[in-house]
Amino acid sequence: MRSVADLMPDIAPQLVVGDMDSLGDVDRDGWEQRGTRFDDTWDGQTAKDYTDGQLALYAALNEGPQRIDIHGALPRRDAYDHDHFLGNLSLISEARERLGDAPDDAVRIAEPLETIALCRHRLTLRRVGVGLNRVSLVACGGSSRVARSEGLRWDLAGLEVCAAPANALRNEFTVDATTVTIEMARGSAPVYVFHNRYDQDAHA
Predict the structure, then answer these.
(1) Which helix (H) or strand (E) holds 111?
(2) Cα dihedral 114, 189, 105, 75 sign
(3) Using 50, 70 and 90 to split pLDDT, how confident is the model at 200?
(4) Crossing angle of helices 52-61/82-99, nearest 10°?
(5) CA–CA dist 102, 114 (Å, integer)
(6) Alpha-carbon distance 192 to 109, whole Å?
(7) CATH 3.40.50.10240 domain residues, the chain
(8) CATH superfamily placement of domain 112-197
(9) To 5 degrees, how large is the angle CA 93–CA 99–CA 100?
């Protein structure tokens, strides 16, 4: 709920689901007055086989969406909860399977300065702002090979994306590119694509 208030102050969630252990002193009455429903099915059940993120995803998928944006999924600077972040990455893959033939950008972790999507076939990214836009590819396992790329400073065509050592990090939109397209080779394993935006030029 704090992520919603911080990232999307004009949006009231339709549904809150999970064990509610992180709600703290959240004003439930205030949210309910804005139209939010709290599903107490899992309230207090921290010893369960699903993460709150999974429960929220399943609830969203049951509504028959065409697109899913996952917010508040990145590690918190004050907690370094990277296990949750890695689990949240798997939500993208899980949702993509459920959405079938939807385009690769139909499911994303979406934050103000970063989006993450799973590229199985073809993914197009759009430049945000006038500053530096960086693009990184991270292998999910198996053999991942890029067939074609457009709009990147370093062309990735023919590159086998390695899990270790990582070899496709911190590429950049070309100066005049408004979009970047990444197309995977037939039969390739998917890759996670990270798109980071900066208000001004940033250096490694």
Answers:
(1) strand 107-111
(2) negative
(3) low
(4) 20
(5) 21
(6) 11
(7) 112-197
(8) Thiamin pyrophosphokinase, catalytic domain (3.40.50.10240)
(9) 95
